[in-house]
Design goal:
CATH topology: Rossmann fold
Protein name: Alpha/beta hydrolase fold
Keywords: Hydrolase
InterPro entries: AB_hydrolase_1, AB_hydrolase_fold, Carboxylesterase_BioH
CATH architecture: 3-Layer(aba) Sandwich
Largest sheet: 2 strands, parallel
GO molecular function, one term: hydrolase activity
Helix content: 40-55%
Number of helices: 4
Shape: globular
Order of helices and strands: HHEHEH
Pfam family, one: Abhydrolase_1
Length: about 100
């Protein structure tokens, strides 16, 4: 099911906020390189800006790493659930 169809289905029951990470989709680019911590901080600022106290967060692929990078410094106080789709393997993220 394409992403848009998933959002349409969920939109009947939830307030949906979908955004592009920097350097992705229709978002602007940054000159100094991308780090996973940057979109994680952007997520924290977006939740603040929208006044979201609790969120159900859904991510796909690289977005899964962004959510883990959000949770690491910010904790789960504002997170009621995490949905991780097609998360990269931990084996691919670590050297052994």
């Amino acid at each position: 099911m394409p992403h848009g169809a998933v959002l349409d289905e969920l939109g009947d029951r939830y307030r949906i906020v979908a955004y592009d990470h920097r350097n992705h989709g229709e978002s602007g680019s940054i000159d100094n390189g991308a780090r996973v911590a940057s979109p994680a901080q952007d997520l924290a600022e977006l939740l603040d800006h929208l006044g979201v106290e609790k969120a159900r967060l859904l991510a796909n692929s690289l977005g899964c790493s962004v959510l883990w990078s959000y949770v690491d410094p910010h904790g789960t106080d504002r997170v009621s659930s995490l949905v991780l789709v097609d998360q990269p393997s931990l084996c691919a993220l670590t050297r052994g």
